[in-house]
Structure formats: C-alpha cells, structure tokens
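Figure S7 source data.
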Amino acid sequence: MGIRINSVEDERVHLPDNLNAVKFGSVFTRRMYLQQYMAEKGWHAAVIGLWADVWPQLGPEASVFHYGQEIFEGLKAYRRPDGNLNLFRHYDNVRRFNRSAERMAMQEVNEQDHAEAIETLVKLEHEWVPNQPGTALYIRPTQIATETAIGVVESSSYLHYVILSPVGPYFPSGFKPMGILVEPKYRRAVVGGTGEAKTGGNYAASMIAGREAKKKGFFQVLWLDGQEGKYVEEAGAMNVCFVYGKTIVTPALSGSILHGITRDSILKLAPQLGYEVEESKIPLERMLVDVENGTIAESFACGTAATIAPIGKFGYKDKEYVVNNGTIGPVTHRLYTTLTNIQYGLEQPPFPDWIKVLEVEKSNRKK
Ligand SMILES: Cc1ncc(COP(=O)(O)O)c(C=O)c1O
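Tokens for the predicted pyridoxal-5'-phosphate complex:
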C-alpha cells in the first residue's frame, strides 16, 4: 500500500546536543506516520507528514480514552560507524504488534506495510538519529480505538501511527546494577489476561507498584505470577534472567509474560557464546536462596530500552539479597557488549535477518 509523503518546508533538526540530560522519550522528531481504519474501508489514507498536519481531530469521547483499547510497540534505530542506520529485528516488533491487536480485539495491520512505514519514516528523519555512545532513535508504533461513542463495544475505527524519539543511554550516569523489590501485593498479569500484549492498561495498572518500590529506594519491582504469587515473572517492564555458572535461566513464557525480543535474542545468542540457556518456572523462594548462597552468580533484566540492566540486589520482606556483591558480573557484561555491538553494527549478527541496514544520505542540513 502506498504512503503519501507530505513535503515539509522547514527541514531543521533540533536534536539535543546532550541527550543524557533529556528525559527518556520526551523529545520527538517532527514527522509521523499515520493510517486510519474504518470497518467499511479497511486501512487507508497512509501518510507521513508533520504531526500538526496529519493528526486528525480526536474528541474526548473517543473510545481509547474510556476503555483503553490501545496497543503499542517499542524498538530502536541505531547509528552505525559508517553513518547508516540499523533496525534491530523490527519484523518481530511488527508481528508482536499484530498479536497484541488480536488479543485486544483491534485491527491487525499488513506486516510488510507496517515494516515499510517504519523504514520510510526513519529514513526521512535520519538526521534525528544521534551518534553518541548508547544513544538511539526510539520508535513507537501505536494503535488506538477512535469510536465516537461511549458504549462498551469493540471500536469500528482505529488510528495506527508511528512516532520517533531520540533517546540517550538508559543509565545516563553509567551501567550500574539496580535494586529490585519483590512485589508483595500487586500482580502485573494473569494467565488468560493481557500480559502477553503490549497494551496501555498493563502499564497503567503497574504504576502504583513502581511508585511504592521507588519510595523504598528500589528501581523497580519483580513481578510474581498472578495465580499463586510464587513464581518469578518479570522485572518492571523488562524480562529477567539469572546466571547459574555457565547457564542462563529465565522464566518460561507462562501466558502472562511479555514475549520480549531482547529475551529471545539472549536465548539465541548465549549458546553461540558458550553458555547454556534454560526457560523454566522459577520459584521465588528458591531464587532468593540461590542468590543468598551465591549459586545465582548474576542477574539482569532485559528489554529494548536498556538492552541489559544488571541487578545488584533483590528486596523481599525487609531483607536484601545481594547479587554478586552488587557488582556487574562477566556474563552480564559480555552479553551486553555483544548484543549492543550487533545493534550498533560493530559486530555481525549471528542471524542475518536480525539487522536491516537503512542507507541514508549524508547531508549538510542545518541542525
Ligand atoms: C512488560 C514488558 N516486558 C518485557 C519487555 C521487553 O521486551 P523487548 O525486549 O521486546 O523490548 C517490555 C518492553 O517492551 C515490556 O514492556
């Protein structure tokens, strides 16, 4: 399907010099991609243009504001040493977007069209991709329900759009282990619920736990399963891994865990680096004992925003369980370096379809 590309008169790029000082995801490029869905027309009117020119009027009654029929994705474009850009496994994000759409009774989009929309928009906005270490262009595909009625019904109209945000490193003051509080009360997701979908409500429901963890001095929470509250599931909005000797263990996908693309990349990459991988049901009590006696040598969270985030301690019932003396271990470090080298084009990916290179013109447009 063709995308109409609006011309933009003022092509200036206002990429902040120091993204370290900018709040994650608070600066946006000027263009966006948008297409509309109506039951009688299907997806139509695909366009790339300035936000103000293409964003349609959306009233306060639009159903997304009431019943949260909303899905999104998060992926990044990385600046390569040769100046071109890398997209990392973007087709996997496109496929997960459609799985989320199906779960939320929304509209699937054509995979090829969606991937091309991302590629075309990023290429047009290529000068917004920063090149300092650890920086990237964050890509946020979204779909929202726009039914103009407040009855509780599946919407018959939707918007699908993509916006872009240049971002700094996840840890602006350096790659440091974080403290994670085992969440005693709230649950992120249940089997049969929406935990496998990237939908706004999951995140809305988790904010209070994050707030309480921060009050206690922790970075985020460790989510337990929704049925029994006994098994480890995720860390904040990331998947979680534990290093036992040469084996990397992560919770098996239970029906309430998001199928993280970084998690999957680690499962595929680690064996190539000489590690074994295991997906299993991890009882919290056993995990804490293993941390305490050092059987778990390292632990880390993983997701697109941070790639890999080392965990230095777990808090549970007023006790702290310190991992690897609160320092970053060699396995975490090696996985982080290898994965980020692949993303930034410093190393060849073990699977060629992980990287799509976007060739961009070197231009001397005014910043
Ligand atoms: C709840 C949750 N779990 C895990 C992840 C990690 O997924 P990915 O590696 O695809 O970014 C994310 C981020 O997308 C998330 O929101």
